[in-house]
Amino acid sequence: MGYLKKAPIRLTAAIALSVVLFASCDRTRIEKGYEYFPDMAHSLAYETYAPAKGANNGITMQTPVLGSIPREMIPYQYASTPEGRMQAGKELICKIESSDTNLVRGKDMYTIFCQNCHGVTGKGDGHLYTSGKFTIQPASLISERMLVAPIGEVYHVITAGWNTMGPHGPQIKPEDRWKIALYVKNNLQKNLK
Amino acid sequence: MHLQASNKQKLITFKLTAPLILLMAGLLFSSVSPAQNKGKEIFEKNCVICHKLTEEKLVGPGLKGITEKRDKAWLKKFIPASQDMVKAGDKLAVQVFNENMKIPMPDHKFLSDDDLDQLLTYIETYKPAEAVKVSVDIAKKDGFWRDEIVRGERLFAGVIPFEKGTTLNCVSCHAIIATDSLNFNPSAVDLAQAWQEPNGTNLYQVLREPTSSKMAEVHKGLQLSDKEIYDISAYLSKVGKDGMTWEKTFPARLLLFLFLGLLMAWALADLIWFRKVKYRVIHVLIIIVGLGVHGTLVIQEGINLGRTKDYMPDQPIKFSHKVHAGQNKIDCKYCHSIADYSKSAGIPSANLCLNCHKVVVAGTRSGKFEIKKIQRAVESGKPIEWVRIHKLPDHAFFSHAQHVGVGKVECQTCHGPVETMDLVKQVSDLSMGWCVNCHRQTGIQATTNKYYEGFKALHDDAKAGKKITAERLGGIDCSKCHY
Fold this sequence. Notes:
The structure holds two protein chains of two kinds. By secondary structure, chain A is mainly α. Chain A has helices at 2-21, 82-91, 100-113, 115-118, 127-130, 144-148, 151-160, 174-188. In chain A, helix 7 (151-160) packs across helix 8 (174-188). The radius of gyration of chain A is 28 Å and the shape is extended. The N and C termini of chain A lie far apart (91 Å). By secondary structure, chain B is mostly helical. A two-stranded parallel sheet of chain B has the order 1-2. Chain B is flat, with a radius of gyration of 35 Å. The chains are: A mainly alpha, B mainly alpha. Chains A and B meet through helix 1 and helix 3 of A and helix 12, helix 13 and helix 16 of B.
């Protein structure tokens, strides 16, 4: 019977250990677990990206009806061609002043959307290119050609894209695009030397 | 005699020369394919990003018939150093430069004269791949015989070797059983789906002509017969239907619960009736510990009801945040660009992926398989159905605009170190207590964040004894009356 004396201690230790070890649930990573009376937990209305059974194509986020323009949206009319770029450069006027707040916002947006390709100084030496992931050298924003380009051209290229650069219009609000253009024109291109 | 001798001599010479001719011919013909391979290799490494071998223009012009259009010697000068030629004022070079929106073509000075020759030969002789001729029914995608499926399964798993001996088997890369980490190779189910969809993968073609260098490297030495591929496709048809299998997790907690329950029952029975164990302290200990563990388990499971912490589903595309946000240092908001001013942080559209993946067509580890899914989604207009991980109950309102846009909370605060995750996992439990705790502990950026200036102004005005209307305190917000 001697071993029984020690048994409880061992048993307790074993149980305590197993509780610690198996502290996670008995479910795989793709299982969500159980719910208990999920009152008002699931939306009756379609959520943003949820599939919509009612719609023909099954999508919640529908594109505007053909021929209609959403509120606050200004259609962009310049194509991503050399002519479009020229025209945009001539016709587009920046209505946003180059105040400090706007330039700071421009810098923030530049950091998020541009820096990874065009680099901190705009030379076209961003991390994606220098690390070898992106094999085509991004354009320099401080080249002679860009120095003389009107600000509308910068705005146009951000909006509609150019060559291998995709259009960033859908990602960035028009106001922020202007602020990036301001930052490129006023900070990157002026701090050269 | 003389004539005979000379005839004999001729015969001997013929005997000698014939093999020589054959050898020469053999060399000639065989030399075509390595040269082409070399040319192909050079082309795929250096040119394919900007040029197509058709007439279609990519970044640079399409190269179909370029060797007839331009002088070969000129091309051999242009490819290594086009910009030098433009600067030197070569008329044709300047014309080409202007025609292509003045995008400079990178120099390729590292290509030797021989390399250039082979490259040009490859471009000249290139013919679009014809459909491979096979001896089996290539269009068959369903309704295979059982023995075909079984044989395919065995080939796939490497249980029986391929005819032309190779030690490779499919299953060690193309998994059938899901694991906890991200396997960048397409799983067997992925392969099956890609093969079964309309205009899907042509297995016979792909297995003979690998689509990416990664695939070519891994599939090296793989020479499957038509019948073998046919059998494997039979197996894939089954896999496509069954889907990924999961290894059942060992139900440790449940077993612990049951075991302790039985043990306690025994202890109780022994205490009252059997009296086999002398020392009562043992019974008491078992019951105390047992009840403790039972309580803990019940409480833990109870708390976890309706919470999906640690949920880590597979996504339709093997997109790795570790690669994109971690290694490539792409800002979270580049893709989730509406987090600043919208309730939802935004799932990027497939078009946005193409901003980079127009150029980056093959992943370092995944090859072309995963990135092609983006292109297919863009072409078909069918949305990519990402699986949602973080979801608050509908009765709680959460807006990214308030937290990211206004409060400048880092994404990682709630979502955890996403930039280190291949597969995204729900790190926080998203419970009410978790929300409230953070709201209790997090300080606002009262001085640096301009959003809070309004509060300061209110405070100052109140101190100065100025009139403060209810409106300034949010008194005419819609929800003050309409709830």
